[in-house]
Amino acid sequence: MAFLDNELDREILAVEALSLIEEEKVSEREALKRISNLHNITDWKIRSTLHALLFETLRYRNLIDFIINSVMEKGTIEKIKSVFLRNILRIGVYQIKIIKKQINLICNTLVELVKKKSSKRAANFVNAILRSAERFDLESELDKLNKKEYLALKYSHPKWFIELLSPYFSDEFIVSLMEQNNKHLPICIRVNLTINDINEVIEEFDAENYEYKIYPEFPDMIEIYSSSKPIVRTNAFKRNGIYIQSKSSILVSYILDPKPSDLIYDFTAAPGSKTLHIAQLMGNKGNIIAFDRSLRRLKELQIKKGLVKSDLINLINSNSTYLRDCLRYKADKILVDPPCSGSGTFSNRPFTKYKSLRGQLKALTYLQWKLLDTAVNLVKHGGVIVYSTCSITLEENEVIIRKLLEKYSDIILDKQSPFIGMKGFLGLNETQRLFPNLHKTEGFFIAKLRKK
At residue 4, does pLDDT exceed 80? Predict the structure, then answer.
């Protein structure tokens, strides 16, 4: 990893973060956190500009790599051994070709950085690639591709994403979705009504000239469109009165409809946003058993539940697929929110786009099925299972639900409330899908099942 000189250069910080993501497979936010801690960045304005450059470069990475590969005389960007040089080039091409910054300014800045951190030869190489990229006729080259390849690069998405949606949606819808995935979604917060008054939070937002929206269906949620300062710097956040959580995630807990007397199993609870919301909706009365196989993530949830005094949540470090013969009591309600491909989260997690979906699906769908199948055996007759993913694939959603309904004659789909999305596919009209371009939230799938 490169180290900074006397001043904080946004570009070198972004390169360090990109390199962390590429080499250690950490998330965008984890990379940002580590770089900020490493260089003791406490100024939120510096952090905000770094966040923007990092996330926007990631959003357009396959288009950026296409440009670089097209102008390289030999090889491809992936063949460049230095991860530092790879990401310097990506930062430069993003600024030159995507946001059209002045070529001399960008070249001079990045070439000087490379001279300091690498060598004069490497600096000359970077300068040559960036100058060639600036002259590259992108639209002309894109026009030579077939339609799916063109759309994938034009809107910087993997081709499999377009192939996944093509049987169900028009090209106009798919383009609209990809365009929204390349933009920021509104920030949603959940107000913890057990320790906070939502009107006090609204008063603070009004005083800070926030633009926001409230929904009658979600009495504890505020959707924020613009703000004068980060949410984490508000008084409400500092006193643990609000929690940043997507609208679709908040919706899941309302559909589960927890009651104060319920025994609830949360199969993959950590990091706990839904678990804590369920506890809030129960008025901190009842019993939630929160399982997760990651001890580290459970420790994070332990801290969070302590901050909001959620005493009804009991944490167990366990793989929930093995619970069938371990639990004495059947649950009133079970939440199954399993690991998934994250194909609905490209707006907030742009690097997810570049992971191999087909390589993941077999392992993911096996785990999702095992968790759901286990839940059927641990819910009471008359009890409810809510299954949710932040994925838009059919394999992780409708296909699994249809398989479950075919196996168990005593499991039926139940109506959902609130229903703010669109009906699911494969005739499963009681399931609910949300899309970023239609519902201004992460792509989500939700099924509510009842045991007769």
Answer: no
Q: Residue 346: helix, strand or coil by DSSP?
A: coil
Closest CA to 58 of 355, 351, 353: 351
What is the set of active-site residues? 390
pLDDT (tens digit, 9 = 90+) per residue, 390-405? 999 999 999 999 999 9
User: What is the distance between the alpha carbons of residues 419 and 151, in angstroms, rounded to a whole number?
Assistant: 32
The residue among 66, 79, 82, 86 whose CA lies nearest residue 138 is 66
Residue 203 confidence (pLDDT) above 90: yes
Mean pLDDT for 43-59 is 90
pLDDT digits (tens, 9 = 90+) for 354-386: 887 777 899 999 999 999 999 999 999 999 999
Distance in angstroms (rounded) separating the CA atoms of residues 31 and 15 = 11
424 Cβ contact partners less than 8 Å away, ≥ 6 residues apart: 397, 398, 401, 430, 431, 432, 433, 445, 447
Average model confidence (pLDDT) across the chain: 92
Six-digit token pair at 231? 């949410």
Calpha distance 270→319 (Å, rounded): 12
Task: Give the contacts of 220 (CB within 8 A, at least 6 positions apart).
Answer: 190, 191, 192, 193, 198, 250, 280
CA distance 191 to 240: 9
pLDDT band at 410 (very low <50, low <70, confident <90, very high): very high
**Integer Cα distance of 227 and 246 in angstroms:** 17
Judged on CB neighbours under 10 Å (0-12, 13-18, 19+), 162 is buried
Angle in degrees, CA 18, 60, 32, rounded to 5: 30
Q: Which of these, 223, 138, 239, 237, lies nearest to 187 by C-alpha position?
A: 223
Tell me the mean pLDDT in the region 347-351: 93
**Mean pLDDT computed over 331-351:** 95
**What pLDDT is stored for residue 215 in this prediction?**
94
Give the separation between CA 319 and CA 106, rounded to whole angstroms: 50
Using CA of residue 26, residue 27, residue 28, residue 34, what is the dihedral sign?
negative
The string of DSSP letters for 153-206 reads HHTT--HHHHHHHTTTS-HHHHHHHHHHHTSPPPEEEEE-TTT--HHHHHHHHH
Residue ranges of domains in the chain, CATH in brackets: 10-142 (1.10.940.10), 147-180 (no CATH), 187-244 (3.30.70.1170), 249-451 (3.40.50.150)
Count, residues in the chain: 452
Q: Judge if the upstream peptide bond of residue 230 is cis by omega within 30 degrees of 0.
A: no
Task: Return d(Cα 386, Cα 337) in angstroms, integer.
Answer: 8
**Residue-wise burial string across 257-286, b where 16 or more C-beta atoms lie within 10 A, e elsewhere:** bbeeebbbbbbbbbebbbbbbbbbbbebeb
